[in-house]
Amino acid sequence: MSSPPAKSYTREEVASHASDGDMWMVVHGRVYDVSKFARMHPGGEHFIHKYAGKDGTKAFDAFHRQDVLTGMAARFCIGTVAEEPPFPLAAPGDISAVPYAETSYWHSWKSPYYTESHVKFRAAIRDFFDREVMPDAAKLDDMGKEPSEELYRKMGQFGILAARIGRGPWLEGLQLPGGLPASEFEYFHEQIAHEEVARLGVPGFCDGLGAGLIIGLPPVLHYGRPELAKRVGRECLLGEKRICLAISEPHAGSDVAGMATTATKSECGRFWVVRGAKKWITNGSFCDYFVTACRTGKGITLLLVERSEGLSTKKIKTSYSPSAGTAYVLYEDVRVPVENTLGEENKGFQCIMHNFNHERWFIVAGVNRASRLIVEECFKWAHQRVVFGKPLISQPVIRNKLAHMVAQVEGVQSWLELVTYQMNKMDYKEQNKHLGGPIALLKLAATRAANHVNDEACQIFGGRAITRTGMGRVIEGFQRSIKYGAILGGSEEIMADLGIRQAMKQYPPTARL
What we know:
Number of strands: 15
Structural class: alpha+beta
Mean pLDDT: 95
Largest sheet: 5 strands, mixed
Low-confidence stretches: none
Strand order of the largest sheet: 1-5-4-3-2
Helix content: 40-55%
Shape: globular
Distance between the termini: 63 Å
Number of helices: 18
């Protein structure tokens, strides 16, 4: 945010500008000339007249978010109040000082997990998102606009896309945020990248920023032919192309056994011919590549299908923003080179399963960071909102709600960090053996906590929690998208059952009460 103009005015000077066509106002120690803005004010011109020549800070805080001052209102700022330091507004990259608004290490707690490397990494990503994404994210999310190709390229060049895929040889030669060498990149860095996306507070647009990449690119990197993996990996990680995972179908949903999309070999044997449809494909409406599961006679085969003749997409209206690009994908005799087969023919199910733990872990990181943002919003609102002459935070019932919200978010965070540490120390085989069940239960815990946080936040914000604009905007968006995490990557019921079934495998036969 740019600094306010250097000129200062006394409050007496401000008071002299209180007539039609000449109205100034003080908000948080800054002086605004609202003469031309009065008629455009969404709340009506009378509000401007009421506070013309006066300090309207309390009234402003009751109706407007601070980003109004750093955004649209900034052009009306003409200076500051003389001999009164202006109230500090959030600047790009700032770490919030609100209790529990950040992971504890960023509030001066000690941690065995984080180092200065992680501090620089988060600072770089946050500054990027605050400057390049945050100013327009809410507006684009509300309009249903998908992230632009230019933004994808910027994220690719900055290293954000690469930072969300996990460590591996594909990072070689790529820039990572904060100047981090690829050799030092580990899962806590990736966790931070996912958390910083969720912090934006616009769920649909957030998913539009690469949710398809996170689940769609790994099968190509792990199972594609070397030249294919290198070419497509580089294109996607640099933001030049976009990719998604296409498994779910209109009839079968995510039930792979009921899959109806087929792929048959052409007479020449050089192509697969794909027929069928996929549904609820995140990012599908704007992607260039579709990692597609097809029935191939004796099993399931995974193919990398490029957007080409015979492949069409259309957006699906869901409860959150169309910015996510959730799509219905139709394959009408799409010809796919056999070289685009991922893994072995008829053994695509194993390829699909390969990334499940990583996908669920990524969902946990995003869901819990989104819940943390809601905690911050509630803390701020409880201090700003005055009811019957007292701030909400003075009410024991509100403090009780915040206490339960914080306890659940911090509990999930601690478990998440413990799992992330294990991921750093275990190879893939060990992770499959030891972490599949705990990650499933962690995802269950995260989405249950988010459901509780959502419920309490709606009660704290009241009618504003169900209003898409204004003070409750972030809460409203959260409560519309809360069930995504509870369904995608495995429903809560499946996660609960999987977690306990995995634990049963380790149950000692001699254990008795």
